[in-house]
Amino acid sequence: MGNLKKKIVSCMLAVMCFVPWLNVSTCESAEVLNWKVGDESVKVPAEVLVLLLNAAQAQADNDHLTELDYVEEGVERFPNEAIFYYMRAGLYPLPGIDKKEKVMENLDKAIELNPDFIRAYYYRGERYIYTKEYDKALADFNKAIELKPDSVYSYYMRACVYHKMKEYDSAITDYSKVIELAPDRSDFERFERARLYFTQGKYDDAIRDCNVLIQNNKETRGSREENNSDVKGVRMLIGPYGLYYSTDDYDEEHKDYNRRFLDSRSSLSKVYILRGKNYYAQGKYREALADGKEVIAQKPKSKAAKELIEKAEAALKSK
C-alpha cells in the first residue's frame, strides 16, 4: 500500500509540472512535499496534497467559501499541520466569512506548530500593528528577519513599527536597510526617511533624499504608465483584506508598490512639498517658493503648496 501511495503522488507531481499556477515545488521524498506559500516553501505531508490543490483551485476561481471548506477539512483531518491554520487565518477576515476575531488564534497555532513559518510572522506582526500592540509586532518582525535576513519586506514593516513607536533613529536605520537591499525599488522608504530627517532637523539629508526621488521620477517617467490615484500606504502592499493565503512574493509586492509610488502625482507633489519645507527651514525661501509653484503647476488646488508659497513670499518680502 505504501508503494502504491508513492506512485500516485509521483504521478500527480508529474501532471502538476504542466500546470503553471499550481504552487508545489520539488519534494524531498514521496512522503513530504515543499508547498510554496508565496516566496516560502513549507514542508507538508503528501497526504494533504489533494486538499491543498482543491483549496488553490478554489482560490484561483475566487471562490473563498469553497476554499474555506477545504481548509476547515484540513484542520479537522490534519490538526498538526500549520499550513491549514495559516490559510484559515487569511480567509477569516474576508467578506462573507468575517471571523476576524479568530485570526490571531489561528496564527498563534500556525507558529506553535511551525516556529519557522516566516509568512505567519509577517501576518501576525501586521495584525499587531493594527491593534497598536507595537512591542508584539516588533518581536514578530525581529523573528522574521532572524529567519530571512535579506527580507526587504521585514525591514520595511519593522521600520513602520519603529516609526509608529516614534523611535525615529531605529526607523531610519531600517528604511536605510531597505534602500541598501533594494536600491532600485525603495522610493517609498526614501520618502519616509526624508520625512524623519525633516522631523529631526537634518535638512540637508532630507533634501538629498528628495532630490533622488525627483530625479528617479524624471528618469523613469516615460517608461511607466501614468497613475493619478493616491498611494494609500501599506495596505496596497498586501491587498484590501490583509496578508492572506497567496501565491505572491511579498518582496515582489513591495517592488510593485514602489514602482507605483512616484507614478502618483499626489506622491510626487508630497516630495516637492517636503523639499520646500526643508528649504524654508534653512532660510532658502526662493527654493521653497519654486517647489511650491512646481506643485501648483500640477495640482492647482493644493492647500499645502499654497501655504508654502504664502510663507515663502512673506519671508522674502520681510528680508
UniProtKB/TrEMBL annotation:
<keyword id="KW-0802">TPR repeat</keyword>
<dbReference type="Pfam" id="PF00515">
    <property type="entry name" value="TPR_1"/>
</dbReference>
<keyword id="KW-0677">Repeat</keyword>
<dbReference type="InterPro" id="IPR050498">
    <property type="entry name" value="Ycf3"/>
</dbReference>
<feature type="repeat" description="TPR">
    <location>
        <begin position="118"/>
        <end position="151"/>
    </location>
</feature>
<protein>
    <submittedName>
        <fullName>Tetratricopeptide repeat-containing protein</fullName>
    </submittedName>
</protein>
<dbReference type="InterPro" id="IPR019734">
    <property type="entry name" value="TPR_rpt"/>
</dbReference>
<dbReference type="InterPro" id="IPR011990">
    <property type="entry name" value="TPR-like_helical_dom_sf"/>
</dbReference>
<feature type="repeat" description="TPR">
    <location>
        <begin position="269"/>
        <end position="302"/>
    </location>
</feature>
<feature type="repeat" description="TPR">
    <location>
        <begin position="152"/>
        <end position="185"/>
    </location>
</feature>
<dbReference type="InterPro" id="IPR013105">
    <property type="entry name" value="TPR_2"/>
</dbReference>
<dbReference type="Pfam" id="PF07719">
    <property type="entry name" value="TPR_2"/>
</dbReference>
